[in-house]
Amino acid sequence: MSKVLGLSKRISRLDYPIRKYNALARSLEEKGEKVIYLNIGDPLKYDFQTPRELIEEAYRAMLENHNYYASSEGVRELQEAIAYKEKVWNGVEVESRNVLVTSGVSEGINALFAALVDDGEKVLIPDPSYPLYINFADFYNANKVFYPLVEEEGWVPDTDRLRRLVDNNVKFIVVNNPHNPTGAVYPVKTIKEILDIAAEWDIPVVSDEIYDALTFEGEFVSTARVASKDNVVIGLNGFSKTFLATGWRLGYVYLKGPEEKVSQIRSAILAFLMTRLSAVTPLQVALARFARRKPLFLEEVRRKMDERRRFTFKRLNEIPGFRLPVAPAGAFYAFPRVEANMSDEEFARRLLLEEKVFVVYGSGFGPVGAGHVRLVFLPPLEVLEEAFNRIERFMRRIQRTS
Ligand SMILES: Cc1ncc(COP(=O)(O)O)c(C=O)c1O
To answer: How is domain 52-290 classified at the CATH fold level?
Structure first.
């Protein structure tokens, strides 16, 4: 008998819904099928390109031999450029030493849990939520407590419910604005209410703002901009989405609040970041030079995404059984409710198998996500049109047979 490998219990708790059916999609493609990928939030997979000037800066940085390990907190010029960018883009004043460069926001989330959360301690996360918050809570054996977002109100947090869920055992409250998977952009009133609750209980707010410049309706307001002097805000942001550089794997954590608390959190996160030595150096140098420039490329990016967003909102609501009461205001996702005689996971799997359209099942984002699917509106209009036609055909078929 072969020896059973001793895999960790920790690893069995990881389940990343966005990529779960990749192997199935690939096997369909190997059979010659044309799969339309609406599952992954990567503009580079469609007709968006990393700004040419940024790529040229990367080449120059490598030729200049910035190919060494950087310091674990990041290349100093990039820490400074990020502080500058936060001020210009979001009106957030942060000291450059309180900016830590990470290998994507993904690593920032991992670092936060590693640094701040012990077994059984509570973290408050939105429901639905970007799955990494669920994954790392499970991985680190945290007690994840979901606070609901309200669909009828455009998926804004129910702050009364949130307030009732807080106690002394909560380590931080996660806010994600603009929000993945719903595309909600939060009113400033909601952000302030959450900040007030956090200040009352003396707990940090983790604010993931990776889609900050991708807002099409309403006004995006950064959490750190409206925080009081008693709040601790742990900002998460990066270059994947707004700089169209998902594959560069660069993001950052910044800290704002009373100095003694900020310095403790900073040291704890840095202790984790030291174990991976540094984030990729030449690309940090390139971004340090590029991030201070006016992001002129963003105007065209937003125009294209907005056109696709409007089309998606209109077309989805024409499909029988699909319901999207409020158009996504930011990011590049729609999270419609789907009426079908099966679970949302079964729905997504069958849609992929039968019509070769790859969406993510909503319950992968938390219990409130059940009965929904997430799809990206990044592809060109003609690809979206084809995808929605296939989805409509699928819906008509399952409604006939149920
Ligand atoms: C809300 C949110 N946070 C973090 C990430 C991870 O981004 P990164 O590429 O910086 O690791 C994503 C990616 O989709 C996201 O949607």
So the answer is: Aspartate Aminotransferase; domain 2 (3.40.640)
Q: What's the 402 CA to ligand 1 centre distance in angstroms?
A: 37
Say how far residue 305 (Cα) sits from the centre of its chain.
17
Residue type, 207: S
129 lines ligand 1 (CB under 6 A): no
Alpha helices in 91-149 (DSSP H): 104-116, 131-139
Separation between Cα atoms, residue 301 and residue 296, nearest integer Å:
10
Is residue 104 in contact with ligand 1, taking CB distance under 6 Å? yes
CB 177 less than 6 A from any atom of ligand 1: no
Distance 263 CA to ligand 1 centre (A): 25
Q: Does residue 131 have its Cβ closer than 6 Å to ligand 1?
A: no
Ordered per-residue pLDDT tens for the chain, 402 residues: 555 678 999 998 888 888 888 999 999 999 999 999 999 999 999 999 999 999 999 999 999 999 999 999 999 999 999 999 999 999 999 999 999 999 999 999 999 999 999 999 999 999 999 999 999 999 999 999 999 999 999 999 999 999 999 999 999 999 999 999 999 999 999 999 999 999 999 999 999 999 999 999 999 999 999 999 999 999 999 999 999 999 999 999 999 999 999 999 999 999 999 999 999 999 999 999 999 999 999 999 999 999 999 999 999 999 999 999 999 999 999 999 999 999 999 999 999 999 999 999 999 999 999 999 999 999 999 999 999 999 999 999 998 876
Q: Where are the beta strands (DSSP E) in 340-381?
A: 357-358, 360-361, 373-376
Of the candidate CATH numbers 3.30.465.60, 3.40.980.10, 1.10.150.130, 3.90.1150.10, the domain formed by 9-49+297-401 belongs to 3.90.1150.10
Question: Which of 19, 40, 105, 241 most suits a substitution to test ligand 1, by most atoms within 8 Å of the C-beta?
Answer: 105
